[in-house]
Design a protein that fits this description.
Layout: H1 5-43, H2 50-55, H3 61-71, H4 86-98, H5 102-129, H6 133-140, H7 155-171, H8 176-192, H9 211-228, H10 233-236, H11 248-257, H12 269-297, H13 301-314, H14 323-326, H15 336-343, H16 349-378
Helix pairs in contact: 1-6, 3-4, 4-5, 5-6, 5-7, 7-8, 8-9, 11-12, 12-13, 15-16
């Protein structure tokens, strides 16, 4: 019990102000998020026939995640080892407990996870970079691949784990409970998405909680050996998905060699291929690499290194057909350099207004692409 009632009342008042600030921000974020969901739902036919709309998201990898839950790896196709079991177990267990369809449960989990992830990310940006949180939150939702919150894909849950771990590491760096929770998140991350092994880069900053990634890797190699007879089978299985072998350099060469000449003999299909296999991966690679380097320059070392390591790990195939979706977890960092400039009062008003206009145009253009690729995905065609 505090001996000084004045100090005690000050602490209580401060805590109440923090809570009020969080409530007001969450209300703003919630309104933006609901508006985005409504626009995306309307743009993909969700209000015409909800049942048809819901079932239309069960495509591509979503079917693999459901199969892993229903059949496991032993009785199913060994190719399923491309996908870690964490997401299937999470969604399947919740769906069974709540007596819901697997894909409906996945949609609920993804929508909640992505919202929580972006709230944590934007709060970090506001604290360490002094950006305006509402515009940062809105731009974060404009990724052309953000529509995957509606499909049974693990990206949204991985987004949450990533930003929850960063939030704990940066906001509560010394707390024992925070350290243990951070360790658990890093331990779980690779079991949700293989991109989670990018967290090993944290050891460069002597964050030894990242050793959890090594434990996950050992368990993953053992699982592959037990099921398929080879600890690296998950890499070999990529060939069965028509994913050519290669590394970051091969992917870079393949992507950028297709940028020029710009020739579309059969519209609109070739436009879609050009955008998702060449133009967008190239733009976002350079944009996010610049953002990662810029974050390091701003001494946000942990966020910057995480962005760069995720880029390196996710772009490891010679054909980056899913690169834009792989970037979803760090996409919110893309606009940070611009938002910091427009938030600063030192540049001339004309420049700040011009940059705001650029941000709005880019954001709207990306939402249009998001809806376009979402409809492409629902129709059964490849879209990231």
């Amino acid at each position: 019990m505090d001996a000084n009632p004045f100090v005690s009342s000050q602490r209580a008042g401060s805590l109440e102000r923090v809570r009020a600030s969080w409530r007001s921000r969450l209300m703003v974020y919630g309104l933006i998020y609901v508006l985005w969901l409504v626009v995306l739902c309307a743009g993909t036919g969700g209000f015409a026939n909800f049942h048809i709309w819901l079932t239309s998201w069960s495509k591509w990898d979503a079917q693999w995640y459901e199969r892993i839950w229903n059949e496991g790896y032993r009785r199913g196709d060994p190719r399923a080892l491309v996908f870690p079991p964490g997401y299937s177990v999470l969604v399947g267990a919740l769906a069974t407990f709540l007596h819901l369809d697997f894909h409906l449960m996945a949609m609920v989990v993804n929508v909640i996870s992505y919202f929580a992830a972006m709230v944590l990310a934007v709060d970090l940006f506001a604290k360490f970079l002094r950006v305006s949180p509402a515009p940062a939150f809105a731009l974060a939702l404009s990724s052309p691949a953000a529509y995957f919150v509606f499909a049974a894909y693990s990206d949204a849950v991985f987004c949450f784990i990533l930003w929850a771990a960063l939030y704990l590491a940066l906001i509560c760096p010394l707390g024992r409970v925070a350290r243990v929770t951070e360790f658990c998140l890093l331990l779980v991350a690779p079991w949700i998405r293989l991109t989670g092994y990018a967290f090993s880069s944290w050891m460069l900053l002597k964050r030894w909680t990242a050793l959890a990634v090594c434990a996950s890797l050992l368990g993953w190699l053992v699982l592959n050996f037990v099921i398929a007879g080879h600890p690296l089978y998950f890499l070999q299985a990529q060939k069965l998905f028509i994913m050519p072998e290669g590394n970051f350099v091969d992917g870079f060469r393949s992507t950028f060699s297709g940028l020029l000449p710009v020739y579309f003999p059969g519209l609109p299909g070739d436009w879609a291929a050009y955008f998702q296999f060449h133009l967008l991966p190239a733009i976002y690679l350079f944009g996010l690499a610049f953002a990662g380097i810029w974050l390091c320059y701003q001494r946000c070392w942990l966020i910057g290194i995480t962005v760069l390591s995720i880029l390196f790990v996710s772009h490891n195939q010679s054909f980056w057909r899913s690169a834009v979706r792989y970037d979803l977890a760090i996409f919110c960092c893309l606009s940070l350099p611009l938002l910091v400039v427009v938030h600063d009062n030192r540049p001339k008003l004309v420049l700040r207004v011009s940059l705001w206009a650029v941000a709005i145009v880019v954001g709207v253009a990306q939402i249009v692409l998001q809806i376009y690729f979402a409809n492409l995905f629902k129709s059964g065609r490849w879209a990231f």
